[in-house]
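Long-time lurker, first post. I've been practising inverse folding by hand and with some scripts of my own, and I keep getting stuck on stretches where the structure tokens seem ambiguous. Below is the full token string for one chain I'm working on. Before anyone asks, I'm not after the true native sequence, just a reasonable design that respects the backbone. If someone could post their per-position residues I'd love to compare against what I wrote down in my notebook.
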């Protein structure tokens, strides 16, 4: 029977909301045993985020699928002992509290090393574990705003806009997955664990590569150019009769092929558009001239013809149109999850594919905080009397 690439790796997941739970979800998809630690009662605060079915948050289910759940009162001494016993058996710990939160509880990274010296510890915080902002909480939009990412998005004459989804959260989660993977490799080679620290602010700025490169060349940061590239033209979004199309011309041969395919030889010979530098200089005029033609043509019609001519082009699709495409079905980027209390619901699939080993997103998330508490305590070797006492004291909570 085939097994996921992380089969046998045990992850202790203290994360909440999106960034680190997103990483934990992918670790579970890849076969790791992921134990989600929540507070008794309300649990992860994302359980309060809609949409809901039968009072169960699909938002929570999406990012916590495939995880076992235990609810621990980490302020109690007995709860802290349970945490440390779990840490002793874990390969990886994941958390995204404000910097220093676990240290204040007396169960931070250094304490964890005392019971598991080779532990791999991964954290995501808004502003990192050091520096003047490290104590502050952070949300996706705050990281996007503080990093310059929002200021670089939108049309030049309009107010800047944020990305249309949680780009900073998910990007930070991907960077943590990347860091943990390298830490696992490092431990395999050296026998020693690592701490992996990810700051959402750093991750957001990491995506601003083009403006930073421009600054290195000119001493100034590129101004936002909306749906068009700062250095190439025509390279952006253009009106069609049934929506919009994206053109990505970065070579003179592509420009010639574009003009030939659209039947606009006059543009090819126009001195305003003689080369890329001229086209960038006269971008507004170029957009106006091209849209005189593209505005009368269908986006898929143009996409087919331009791709055949070697010009990168794509119809701008809605999520519904993307969902209906044969390519989408072939790649299995959208899948169904069976969730207790919900039934089947649609989720995005982990986009990583391996040649010899499968990924398994088709596993339920914990139905309620502490869904598997008793099972997890028993796996630690606790006697039935101790399990009963922990549950009775409230240090650990069992759902149901």
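-- Answer (accepted) --
I ran through it position by position. Result:
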């Amino acid at each position: 029977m085939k097994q996921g690439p992380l089969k046998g790796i045990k992850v202790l997941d203290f994360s909440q909301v999106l960034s680190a739970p997103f990483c934990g979800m992918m670790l579970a998809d890849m076969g790791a045993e992921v134990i989600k630690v929540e507070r008794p009662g309300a649990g992860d605060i994302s359980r309060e985020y809609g949409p809901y079915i039968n009072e169960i948050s699909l938002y929570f289910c999406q990012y916590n699928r495939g995880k076992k759940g235990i609810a621990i009162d980490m302020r109690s001494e007995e709860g802290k002992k349970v945490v440390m016993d779990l840490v002793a058996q874990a390969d990886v710990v994941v958390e995204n509290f404000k910097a220093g939160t676990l240290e204040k509880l007396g169960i931070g990274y250094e304490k964890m090393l005392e019971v598991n010296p080779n532990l791999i510890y991964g954290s995501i915080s808004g502003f990192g574990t050091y520096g003047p902002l490290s104590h502050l909480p952070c949300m996706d939009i705050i990281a996007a705003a503080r990093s310059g990412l929002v200021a670089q998005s939108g049309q030049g004459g309009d107010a800047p806009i944020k990305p249309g989804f949680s780009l900073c959260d998910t990007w930070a989660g991907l960077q943590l997955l990347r860091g943990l993977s390298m830490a696992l490799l490092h431990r395999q080679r050296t026998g020693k664990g690592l701490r992996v620290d990810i700051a959402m602010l750093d991750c957001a700025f990491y995506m601003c590569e083009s403006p930073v490169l421009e600054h290195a060349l000119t001493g100034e940061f590129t101004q936002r150019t909306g749906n068009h590239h700062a250095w190439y033209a025509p390279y952006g979004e253009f009106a069609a009769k049934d929506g919009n199309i994206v053109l990505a011309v970065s070579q003179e041969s592509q420009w010639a092929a574009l003009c030939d395919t659209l039947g606009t030889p006059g543009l090819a010979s126009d001195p305003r558009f003689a080369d890329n530098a001229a086209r960038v200089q006269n971008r507004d005029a170029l957009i106006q001239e091209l849209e005189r033609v593209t505005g009368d043509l269908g986006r898929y019609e143009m996409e087919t013809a331009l791709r055949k001519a070697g010009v990168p082009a794509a119809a701008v699709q809605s999520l519904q149109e993307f969902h209906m495409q044969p390519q989408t079905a072939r790649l299995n980027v959208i899948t169904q999850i069976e969730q207790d209390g919900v039934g089947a619901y649609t989720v995005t699939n982990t986009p990583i594919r391996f040649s010899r080993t499968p990924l398994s997103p088709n596993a339920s998330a914990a139905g309620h905080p502490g869904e598997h508490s008793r099972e997890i305590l028993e796996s630690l070797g606790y006697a039935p009397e101790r399990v009963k006492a922990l549950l009775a004291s409230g240090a650990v909570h069992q759902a149901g």
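A couple of notes from the structure itself: The radius of gyration is 26 Å. The chain has two domains: 10-206+330-397, 235-317. Happy to go over any region you disagree with.
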